Amino acid sequence: MGVVALPLAIVAGCGDQGAPNASAVAKACLSTTNMTDELCSCIGDEAEEKLSADGMRFLTALLEGDEDETAELREQLGLEEVAKAGMFMTTAPATCAARLAR
Known about the structure:
Layout: H1 6-12, H2 22-32, H3 37-50, H4 53-64, H5 67-76, H6 79-101
Helix pairs in contact: 1-6, 2-3, 2-4, 3-6, 4-5, 4-6
């Protein structure tokens, strides 16, 4: 799923497994996007710093295309949490790319 489509998909979906860490987010990023290992690793670190555990679960499920998990989490999380995860993926790739370019 592309970065542009991701925010729209977030508004549409959520799930429930153990709370992911930066590695889980990076792994989901690597397996479902065309971003580099270094960029996905940075995105994982950013997610761990900026999102709650539930927000990271939502993001990971969304990246992995786990529709059941994303639907469940969307129901559990407030609109603010879902929106924050959506905005995260609209800004984190550019933030990390700029950081890595230094």
